Amino acid sequence: MDKEKSKLPYHADIGLFDKMINDLKTTGPEGVNLDTMWADIGATKDNLRSFALNLGKYVDLVDSDNKKIWLTELGTTLRYMSKDERSKILASKLPDKYRTMFKWIHADKELRSNEIKRKFIETWGNIISPSVLDRVISTFLNYCAWIGIVTYQGRGIQEILIGM
Fold this sequence. Notes:
- Helix content is 55%, strand content 12%.
- The protein is mostly helical.
- It has 2 domains: 3-79, Arc Repressor Mutant, subunit A; 83-163, Arc Repressor Mutant, subunit A.
- The strands form 2 sheets. It has a 3-stranded antiparallel beta sheet with strand order 1-3-2. The protein has a 3-stranded antiparallel beta sheet with strand order 4-6-5.
- A hairpin with a 6-residue loop joins strand 5 and strand 6.
- The N and C termini lie far apart (33 Å).
């Protein structure tokens, strides 16, 4: 698998991601020690923290050199936005693959997560294992819900996603 295809974030805890972004809003451009930030948000022993960090990097809100973490220019602008403004700007700045997957939901108005997985494979091929694909799609959907561009109705086989 080439590097581009393996970059999609997966298994990210959106609650931990939210805590990370909110904690970093009070730091300066020099950032903060990564271990300090994890301690500040109560995640020093959380095994999922690297997944949240990968999501933050993928959507261009944070960057890190594995010692320090800081908000990107886009992440910094969130400090000064209302929730509605944040949703609009983050929706307009979706990474290419996220933008494509969102367009599938938006075009159909209602789409089940299994249909997104099928479209993913049809578009990019069977590039990741089924369990990782589940986590990739889940992370994508949770991020889209976090920025307010999809809503869930139901769970499991009855799950329907509605694009805003």
